[in-house]
Specification:
The chain is mainly alpha-helical. The chain has one domain. Helix 3 crosses helix 4, helix 3 packs parallel to helix 6 and helix 6 crosses helix 7. It is globular, with a radius of gyration of 15 Å.
Length: 150
């Protein structure tokens, strides 16, 4: 069995934390999540998740909806799977979108002291961790996203 076919791993602590927060706040999606085993490794699905995240970082309303729908964990899974399966361009784009969305989530929620760089725990990549990726969205980019369409 290859890495791309391995059994589903435990959810990350960040994913669990976000899911519990969404349930507590009443912002969890109403319907069941799609079966991750059925389409988890489909390159088109990975690309679609990353494209949704890229659209989200260009508009405050889209970014808010993306975060409130709990899709940051899905994006993280897509990035990890794309990296494992050798879809480097998709992984790179996803890492950039994830860093921007994490920074925005941290800025909006005011949880900066609770979590590490880029809005994640110890497993979070530091801003600029990927030399080929665009800037993470810290500073002026994050401010621009937060006020883009308000």
């Amino acid at each position: 069995m290859t890495d791309c076919q391995s059994a589903a791993s435990e959810p990350s602590p960040e994913s669990v934390r976000r899911s519990l927060r969404a349930l507590a706040e009443g912002s969890a999606p109403r319907g069941p999540s799609p079966d991750p085993a059925s389409a988890r490794h489909d390159p088109e699905r990975l690309r679609a998740v990353v494209e949704d995240a890229e659209r989200a970082v260009s508009c405050a309303a889209a970014a808010s909806a993306f975060l409130l729908d709990g899709r940051l964990a899905t994006l993280g899974d897509a990035v990890t799977t794309a990296e494992r399966c050798g879809h480097e361009q998709v992984a790179r784009r996803g890492r950039r979108a994830r860093a921007i969305l994490r920074d925005l989530d941290t800025a909006v929620s005011g949880r900066d002291s609770e979590i590490g760089p880029s809005g994640g725990g110890p497993e979070a990549e530091p801003s600029g961790g990927d030399p080929e990726a665009e800037p993470s969205g810290r500073g002026t980019d994050a401010v621009a996203i937060g006020t883009a369409r308000l």
